[in-house]
Structures are given as structure tokens and as C-alpha cells.
Design brief:
5-stranded antiparallel beta sheet, 4-stranded mixed beta sheet, 5 helices, globular, disordered N terminus
Length: 306
Amino acid sequence: MIRLSILFISLFFFIACDRVENPIPQNSGAYDISLYPGNYATDYNYPSFGTNSNTNLNVLLEYYTGHQCGNCPIAGTNAKNIESANNGRVIVVSEHAGAGGISQYQRIYDPGEPEYPKYSRNFTNEAGLAYATTITGIPGNPYGMINRKIFSGATTPWVSNSQWANRVNTVLQENNLRADLQMEVNYFPQTHALFVHVESEAKTNLSGNYNLFLYAVAKDVIDWQKDYTVFPNDVEFYEHHNVHLGNINGTWGQPVFEGTVTANTKVRKDYTYVIPEAFRGLNYAVVAFIADASTYEILQVIKVEP
């Protein structure tokens, strides 16, 4: 009986200690469980990732625009058409920034100005302004980048609207998949918080330094836009598509592969992000991409909605 009692007690403590609650990730420094509107430890569905069977490289078309750029809506329509024609393999993000970061095309009106409340929402964000000034060569708006790739014969990754379709097709046909991503996103309107879980995987041997970037995106924002193709030029209910609100993990992302990395290496990261007050009550997505830290070129991009 003594032996049976000891066995029973040992079994009880083994089972009790084997219970695993949701982990608090230690790999990003930007994961706040207090943003979960409930008991995180027992109720949150912390995900795991299986085998990633994808074989296709996707394309990020970063469309640099401004709500006071009257020539930009034509380019915006072109970007959306390219996205729609490529069955999920092209992701468009609207970036409100221009030459020098902020130009007259991103100008906002303040209370007391004659045009107010037109163009009073600030669509710019810290990361987008940094890219427009650091990734040199942007002539103005509308211009864009296609996976931030410098194409043959060019000296910068900036591409004019008329070339977007051809450049996108070039990247899609090359289909050079060197890294891949899986991601799950949850959104809790009670705290305006995104919970983001992402797994990066090297599909080939890599050498160099590569960063993971995470964009918080508002899918469709209805607001003022200047459009020279219509009269009057000021359009009140314009649909701003996939607006970049800000970066979830810093302007230049965070390191994910460094030095020499062998194929099939996987890195898991977790983040939380609070939607800016001016863009609450909308529909959101997260755009994740891996980019070369020295050349800025993007190795893979995906978009996931909560």
C-alpha cells in the first residue's frame, strides 16, 4: 500500500506539472499579453505552424502617393488592377510619402485653414517617410518599388507607374524563392490590438543579414483625395487601398537570418501592436516580408487578415 501511495502521488505531480499554459514569447520584446481582453494563459489560441508547402515568390508593390497628388489615383487604380490580376501573388501597399519624405502632396490641413476639414487625416508614418529619404532616388509621386529590386539598367529600385506591370511580371516569372513565411494574426477590437505570430524559413542556404518587416495595414480608408481626372478635383469619398499605418517591429524590422544560414532554418517571432487612434474601426491586415538588410531587396512577402 505504501508503494502504491507513493506511485499515485508521483503520477499526480507528473500530470500536474505537465500542464503547459500559453507561453509569453521572449524573442521580440514587443509582446504585451495585457492587450488580450481575457485570460491569456487559459483562453488565448497560441498557434503553431506546420510544414510550409508553398513554392511561389510573391511581390510587394509599394505605391508612394499623397492625398493631394492629383495624378496619383490613376497609378492607384493601376496598382489595384495588377494586384487583382495576379491571384494573391501581388500585394499592394499605399505609402503616403514622397521626395524628401513629406512633400506638398502629403500636406494636411489644420483647424482654421480655409480648406479644413478636407485633407485633415495624416496618412504618413515614420517608417514610410524614412524609406522615401533613405532609399535614395525617388523622383516624386506617384512612384513605387517592386520587391525593392534594382532591375537591370537601373540604379535605384524606384519604378514609374507605366513600368509596374512589366516589372511585376519579371519577378513573378523568375520565381526565385529563397525564403518563405507563415503568419497568423488576431485582432481584438476591445483593445484595438493585433497579435501577430510569424515563422520565417530559409528555403536555400543564405549568406548575409536579413530582416523581418511587419506592416500594419488598413485595408480601405474612405477619405479625401485630389484627382485631376474628375471635376471637381477634390473627391470626398475616395477609397485609399491598403494604407500602411506603421511598422509593428521597427522602421527597419528586426534581424531574422544573420551570417551563414542553412536551408530549412526556421525562426519564430511574436508581436503585439495597437492600431493608431485615427484609423480605428476599420478592417486590417498585416503584411510581412523578409528583406536583405544591405540592399533592401525583398525575398518574400505575405499578407494575412485577422
